[in-house]
Amino acid sequence: MPFKQQALLRQKLFLLGSLAIGSLLYLVARVGSLDRLQPICPMESRLAPGLAEQFPLRTLQYKRGILHELRKGNASKEQIRLHSLVQQLPRAIIIGVRKGGTRALLEMLNLHPAVVKASQEIHFFDNDQNYARGIDWYRGKMPFSFPHQITIEKSPAYFITEEVPERIFKMNSSIKLLVIVREPITRAVSDYTQVLEGKERKNKTYHKFEKLAIDANTCEVNTKYKAVRTSIYTKHLERWLKYFPVEQFHIVDGDRLISDPLPELQLVERFLNLPSRISQYNLYFNATRGFYCLRFNIVFNKCLAGSKGRIHPEVDPAVVAKLRRFFHPFNQKFYQITGRTFNWP
Ligand code: A3P
């Protein structure tokens, strides 16, 4: 073979080889990130009862794309028309608590085929300007969904805002309310860390947590500090109970949602009267992030944004001890009202 042809052949072989190695490396990386890989369950069994009978299998497979788009909060005009998609008011709301794990809870519930999330925090009930825009404005902020699906939104400020329980009651007195809580001091420090990060981004200085949490004059816990006040869960819940019976609330353990999310999600599925569809397959631990991430299917998985899971500053143990003593009676009351014990220190 002439030398020129040989060189051409070598070049082609080299290109093909690189392509094969590249594809192999991609696959290895992909499977590596999908640790504990399991087969995907068939589409029909992932749908709420009734839907599988409503659509023949071929249609269901075609709809896989739509369900996925709906979960991402997208739907084209054509899909909306073709499948009679609707914007529905939420049948369940994650009302708080800020830094309790509200985003993780919403995203994880959204793994359920019968759930569609409102991606943004809408702040309809806690913001007077938004509230004045009326219920149709609120509905217009909701994602498109199939009529049998339930829409869920989350706005953590609802839990602590005075006017919200009455406003939600006026919209739907039988709505289901989800509250995700973490150990109160961890939550308060998480809250502080978020504000601190915001200040640092603007090159501003900020007080230490200890200075904010303890009143320098009395040496007592500073109940005027918002991060402390928000963690007095029972005080806020009591306001809500003036409008809704306790059975309409479900308390999610935010600390367990971090360490072992599936059992917590199964409790929520039961509370929402949904068939159990979220499985271990949908959740995988990402060692780099140090958190569970979400797997929708073999190609689509995601972790929460980097702003979730910040490193907290160390807090003076004497201040922690003081805060524990302060929160103890409120925590006891919270366990008593909700019927869920957390054994917080
Ligand atoms: P930290 O940043 O203090 O760790 P919210 O969404 O209500 O703002 O709550 C944020 C908290 O969600 C984070 O607080 C983080 O600990 C928690 N969280 C729970 N599950 C998570 C997950 N799978 N990925 C990232 N953060 C998660």
From TrEMBL:
Active site residues according to the UniProt entry: 99 (for sulfotransferase activity)
Compartment(s): Golgi apparatus membrane
Binding site for 3'-phosphoadenylyl sulfate: 99-103, 182, 190, 292, 308-312
Disulfide partners: 293-303
Alphabetical list of Pfam families matching this protein: Sulfotransfer_1
Any one annotated GO CC term: Golgi membrane
Tagged with keyword Disulfide bond: yes
Protein's name according to its UniProt entry: Sulfotransferase
Source organism phylogeny: Eukaryota, Metazoa, Chordata, Craniata, Vertebrata
